[in-house]
Specification:
This protein is 38% helix and 0% strand. The chain is mainly α and 55 residues long. It has one domain (1-50).
Length: 55
């Protein structure tokens, strides 16, 4: 089975535009998550569907 070239490239074609246009997280948001979840340098975090991997 072959894959359509548009499907194969998918998000790659628009990733730069998405990254430029997507707002960042509010100041302190990551620090609040880290503190609230009790994370430290040894913690593992799974980033699911955060676009270009901002977290």
């Amino acid at each position: 089975m072959s894959i359509d070239p548009r499907a194969a490239s998918g998000f790659a074609d628009v990733a730069d535009a998405y990254a430029r246009g997507r707002p960042g997280y509010p100041s302190g948001a990551i620090d609040r998550l880290v503190a609230g979840l009790g994370l430290d340098a040894a913690s593992a975090v799974l980033d699911l569907a955060a676009g270009t991997g901002l977290v």
